[in-house]
Design the sequence.
C-alpha cells in the first residue's frame, strides 16, 4: 500500500509541477469592464468568485465609453493561449457596439482558439457543440444578442436625451449651480460703473477673473 501511495503522490506532484510551469494546462480567466470610474464592479466580481476563478486571472478595466483602450483586456488576451477558458458576465463586456463584440468574439474563438462562457446567457458557451452545427447555432445566437445589446444601449441613450429635453422644457437647469456673489460685489460693481476703479481692480477685489466679473455684472444688471 505504501509503495502505491508513494507512486500516486509522485504522479500528483509531477502533474502539479507541470501546471505550475504553465505547460499544456488550460487556464480559466475572467474579464470585468465597467463603463466609468463611478460604476460598481461588485456584481461581476461576485459572479467570478462563485466559479473560483483565480484572482490573478481576473482582469478589470474601468473607463469611460469614449476611452476604449482597455489595457487590462489587451494584457489578458496576450497572456491567453489555445484552449484557455474566458468567463464574462454579459456579452456587452466585449465591446461598445455590435461590430466590436463580433470582432472580439472572432479574434478570441477563431484566432486564439479560446473558449468563452457568457454567464448571463448560457447558450453562449463555446465548450458545447464543437461540431459544425453547434458552432453555427452559437454564431447565430451571438449575432442576435449582440444586436439586442447595442439596440438597448441606443434606446437608453435616446430615453435619457428625451428626459433631459423634457426637463429643460420645464425649466430644470443642469450643471453646477452658480456660486453666490461675494458680499462686496454690489459696492464694487457700483464703483466700477462710475469708473472709480478699473475692471481689473474690480475683478481682483471680488476674487474673480475679468471674464467672470464681466459675466456676473451682465447677469446682475439684467436682473435689475
Sequence:
Amino acid at each position: 500500500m505504501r509503495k502505491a501511495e508513494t507512486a500516486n503522490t509522485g504522479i500528483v506532484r509531477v502533474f502539479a509541477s507541470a501546471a505550475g510551469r504553465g505547460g499544456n494546462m488550460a487556464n480559466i480567466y475572467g474579464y470585468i469592464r465597467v463603463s466609468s470610474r463611478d460604476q460598481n464592479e461588485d456584481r461581476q466580481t461576485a459572479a467570478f468568485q462563485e466559479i473560483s476563478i483565480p484572482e490573478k486571472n481576473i482582469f478589470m478595466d474601468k473607463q469611460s465609453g469614449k476611452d476604449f483602450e482597455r489595457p487590462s483586456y489587451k494584457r489578458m488576451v496576450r497572456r491567453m493561449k489555445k484552449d484557455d477558458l474566458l468567463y464574462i458576465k454579459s456579452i456587452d463586456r466585449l465591446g461598445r457596439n455590435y461590430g466590436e463584440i463580433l470582432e472580439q468574439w472572432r479574434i478570441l474563438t477563431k484566432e486564439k482558439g479560446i473558449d468563452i462562457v457568457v454567464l448571463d446567457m448560457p447558450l453562449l458557451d463555446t465548450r458545447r457543440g464543437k461540431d459544425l452545427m453547434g458552432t453555427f447555432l452559437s454564431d447565430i445566437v451571438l449575432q442576435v444578442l449582440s444586436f439586442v445589446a447595442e439596440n438597448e444601449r441606443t434606446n437608453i441613450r435616446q430615453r435619457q436625451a428625451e428626459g433631459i429635453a423634457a426637463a429643460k422644457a420645464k425649466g430644470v437647469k443642469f450643471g453646477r449651480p452658480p456660486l453666490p456673489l461675494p458680499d462686496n460685489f454690489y459696492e464694487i460693481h457700483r464703483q466700477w460703473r462710475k469708473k472709480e476703479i478699473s475692471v481689473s481692480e474690480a475683478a481682483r477685489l471680488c476674487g474673480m477673473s475679468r471674464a467672470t466679473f464681466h459675466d456676473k455684472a451682465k447677469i446682475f444688471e439684467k436682473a435689475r
Observations:
- The longest strand covers residues 28-34.
- The chain has eight helices and four strands.
